[in-house]
Specification:
Helix 8 crosses helix 13. By secondary structure, this protein is an alpha/beta fold. Helix 8 links the parallel strand 8 and strand 9. It contains 15 helices and 13 strands. The radius of gyration is 22 Å and the shape is globular. It binds uridine-5'-diphosphate. Uridine-5'-diphosphate (UDP) binds next to helix 1, helix 10 and helix 11. The site of uridine-5'-diphosphate has 18 residues, from helix 1, helix 10 and helix 11. Belongs to the UDP-glycosyltransferase family.
Length: 435
């Protein structure tokens, strides 16, 4: 009797070794695992998610030879290290896949890789394994990826997009180089994106037309799974502190896992927060204040004032913090995960983005969803105080909170049976069977 062809059931995941990228990809891994797929995670030698492998039972973790040490990442900065990592990882990843194929009896259904780990495309092609791109950013951001650079800005001839000044990402031409590589090396059969149609329906429709391959909005992934995948230990003492604060009174401040502030900005922030008379919970990572050892390096009076009025941690359990009844607002750098997490708990935001993608997210928060206040220009204590009061004391903040709660309900509905995530997942599963 002829043996029935079994659908391949193993998926290889390749994250970028950075928290904001690892977390959603691992959440996706959990979802796919619950649908019966086996998961192999391929990682480098640092920021290994396998350090929390106990939260991912049954997952296989494989380490490829690290072509770029952590110190190089720091030295080169985000964009250059991604370009270099991609140039130097192709060969070791191919070796890794060939080993895995032997080990798994050729049972690899597909490789899902972070869009910036585009070196995976070559291995997928060589071994004829389907590949899927995973995007940890918003659909709107994907839309803004430049093939745009030579286009003239509307009504502003001869200014081209590439002539526009940007900040925080280093030279624009290197960023464009990275985007070009991401686009040119694209051999994938589909894109999975951590977003949801109730937030970005027009960008998603645009994206579907633009990329010419199937797009699966499988977000908000953090609502599908609560396994911790934190690369650093979280300080839970802040929850006890929050328990003692009044409802909706606290501003939670985090600039993500990579953002950095100048000492001058931290001082202005400290004065503004204290002058607002609202309690605050502030994440200050080691290394997040440029050129210092942290808050201890601030002048003693400021340090004392901040410690009396607020609570400082190096790492917070962010989702739990945002869901705490004492939290009334989130001062954020507007990373996409932070936004989804904040909306998921119905918390309005104060936006102080650093660079392009975050700036775009901030615009959506302020102008489209109307649940955020942007603080523009140099950080200055009066502006900080005003923004905090607008959100926690004034009527305007209450209106934003109501809208954020409505969005929260929509997000929650999308995850339930019959919701958009639910349906997209079904479609993706079906797609996997066709590969
Ligand atoms: N995060 C956290 N505790 C902290 C700071 C950050 O758990 O003290 C998590 C946060 O919940 C989010 C991720 O780190 O999931 C940061 O991702 P995001 O996209 O917001 O920003 P990035 O760090 O990538 O710039």
């Amino acid at each position: 009797m002829e043996k029935k062809m079994e659908a391949k059931r193993r998926i290889v995941l390749v994250p970028i070794p950075a928290q904001g990228h690892v977390t959603p990809l691992m959440q996706l891994g959990k979802v796919l695992n619950s649908k019966g797929f086996s998961i192999t995670v391929v990682e480098g030698h640092f920021n290994q998610v396998s350090s929390s492998s106990q939260h991912f039972p049954g997952f296989q973790f494989v380490t490829i030879k690290e072509s770029l040490p952590e110190s190089e990442f720091e030295k080169l900065g985000g964009i250059e290290s991604m370009i270099t990592l991609n140039k130097t990882s192709e060969a070791s990843f191919k070796d890794c896949i060939s080993q895995l194929l032997l080990q798994q009896g050729n049972d690899i259904a597909c490789i899902i890789y972070d869009e910036y780990m585009y070196f995976c495309g070559a291995a997928a092609k060589e071994f004829s394994i389907p590949s899927v791109i995973f995007s940890t950013q918003s659909a709107a951001n994907y839309v803004s990826h430049p093939d745009m650079q030579d286009k003239v800005v509307e009504n502003l001839y001869p200014l081209r997009y590439k002539d526009l000044p940007t900040s925080g990402m280093g030279p624009l031409d290197r960023f464009f180089e990275l985007c070009r590589e991401v686009a040119n090396k694209r051999t994938a059969s589909a894109v999975i994106i951590n977003t949801v149609s109730c937030l970005e329906s027009s960008s998603l429709s645009w994206l579907e037309q633009k990329v010419g391959i199937s797009v699966y909005p499988l977000g908000p992934l953090h609502m599908t799974d609560s396994s911790p995948s934190s690369l650093l230990e979280e300080d839970r003492s802040c929850i006890e502190w929050l328990n003692k604060q009044k409802p909706k009174s606290v501003i939670y401040i985090s600039i993500g896992t990579l953002g950095q502030m100048e000492t001058k900005e931290v001082l202005e922030m400290s004065w503004g927060l204290c002058n607002s008379n609202q309690p605050f919970l502030w994440v200050i990572r080691a290394g997040s204040i440029l050129g210092t050892n942290g808050i201890e390096s601030l002048p003693e009076d400021v340090n004392k004032m901040v410690s009396e009025r607020g609570y400082i941690v190096k790492r917070a359990p962010q989702i739990e913090v945002l869901g705490h009844p004492a939290v009334g607002g989130f001062w954020s750098h507007c990373g996409w995960n932070s936004i989804l997490e904040s909306i998921g708990e119905g918390v309005p935001m104060i936006c102080k983005p650093f660079h392009g993608e975050q700036k775009l997210n901030a615009m959506y928060l302020e102008c489209v969803w109307k649940i955020g206040i942007q603080v523009e220009g140099d950080l200055e204590r009066g502006a900080v105080e005003r923004a905090v009061k607008r959100l926690t004391v004034f009527e305007e903040g209450e209106e934003m909170r109501k809208r954020a709660v409505t969005l929260k309900e929509e997000l929650r509905a999308s995850v339930r049976g019959g919701g958009s995530l639910h349906n997209s997942l079904k479609e993706f599963e079906h797609f996997m069977m066709t590969l």
